[in-house]
Amino acid sequence: MALTDTAVRQAKPYGKNYALKDSGGLATFVGPRGAKQWHFRFYWLGKQARISFGVYPAVSLKEARTARDEARALVAQGIDPRANRREARLAASASTENSIRSVFKDWRAFRALSLNAGRQSALSQIDRHFDKDILPKPKVRHNPHLRMDELPLFLHKLRSCGGHPNTVPGIRFPLLTGVRTGELRAAKPEQFDLERGLWIIPAEGVKQLQVRERQESEEIPPYIVPLSRPAVEIIKGLLAAKLPAQSFLLPHRSKPRESISENTLNNTLKRMGYEAQLTGRGRGDVPRAVRSEAMNEVFGMILALHEMNGDVAFLPRISKYITFIVEMGSLFFAIARFFGTHYRKWLAEVFKQSFDGGKKDT
Predict the structure, then answer these.
(1) Are 15 and 191 in contact (CB under 8 A)?
(2) Which residues pair with 44 in a beta bridge?
(3) How would you class 76 by CB atoms within 10 Å of its CB: exposed for 0-12, middle for 13-18, buried for 19 or more?
(4) pTM recorded for the entire structure
(5) Torsion (CA) 206, 211, 212, 218 in degrees, nearest 10
């Protein structure tokens, strides 16, 4: 049955991706938070492929059907619509090459012709002036974060801040894992494997993987977060308090089917006096503090799995490293909380030797 605009407009989120199918391979995918994106599925070289046509309502049902018909016509002609789109974008980019940088490159090439062999070094000086004064790179601005020596006081204040029961776990857990609070707010109870100390996040729940999912036709494996013992205890406490109608790990205080508000976490940080140093939007505030100290190498190992994005079937090959990372997470938290800065260099060397020894056995 063909879709109607009313059906698409009134489609509600149910906590996971689902599809409303139209005809001819067109469908709108409704995300866990209600975002609706048009996809056209087709077969290319014997395999199913997918191309996106944008989000609803920016792209209407009528416009999506027109795009589907155009893509089907390309497939019938033996043309991959994805490759055709890339070529069209490159052509459009080439036709608008009147930017400052492109004009500068043309002038530089012309200027190089008038310089003799002994004066070609002037070109590098011109390049430096252009990059420094004409089009300098924008300064990178990171989210605010804590310094290592500020962690003990922050954790003490957090334990005594009061407020909603989910607020403190909602702030502590990202500090222990380095995940974004947005990823935690979207977390579901069924994503946690506490026996192995893992949080397995579907690709659609991770910001970077959402981009890959839109760009690539193949299925993207889940994102795996190893959990330290304190992190596991936090999850156990949250699951023990789970309500029957609760959909998310951290529910809204008055709407159990919805997740906790980002403002709830930010307002708590504001009341604690950390508005200028921490935000509910960033990630890895503790990792940043540690990377600036003697444990930067060790904590890089702790966060190594964040770069792997491997599926669960890959875990047996790295089980020894996951165990190490989980143990390290617990030890690091204990150091940050109880010992402060006194023993970090010595412990970093001990942990590094332990890791190197385990690595040789693999």
Answers:
(1) no
(2) 47
(3) exposed
(4) 0.45
(5) 90
Each residue's pLDDT tens digit, 202-219: 877 666 655 555 566 556
Confirm if 181 and 265 have CB atoms less than 8 A apart: yes
Q: Is 129 exposed, middle or buried (0-12, 13-18, 19+ CB in 10 A)?
A: exposed
CA angle 132, 133, 136 (to 5 degrees): 55
| Tokens read off for 152 | 């003990």
Give the pLDDT score at 68: 94
Q: Which residue has better confidence, 94 or 241?
A: 241
**pLDDT by residue (tens digit) across 157-185?**
888 877 777 888 888 888 777 777 788 88
> HSE of 132 in the Cβ direction (CA atoms, 13 Å)?
6
Place of tokens 């190089």: 112
Task: Indicate the pLDDT class of residue 282, thresholds 50, 70 and 90.
Answer: very low
CA angle 245, 249, 251 (to 5 degrees): 60
Residue 223 DSSP code: E
Rounded Cα gap, residues 229 and 128, in angstroms = 51
196 token code pair: 């192995």
Query: H or E stretch including 246?
Result: none
CA separation for the pair 225, 309 (Å, rounded): 9
Q: How far apart are CA 266 and CA 249, in angstroms?
A: 18
Please provide residue 10's backbone torsions phi and psi, each rounded to the nearest 5 degrees. -90, 0
HSE toward the beta carbon, residue 103, CA cutoff 13 A: 6
Domains and CATH numbers, the chain: 5-94 (3.30.160.390), 100-134 (no CATH), 148-360 (1.10.443)
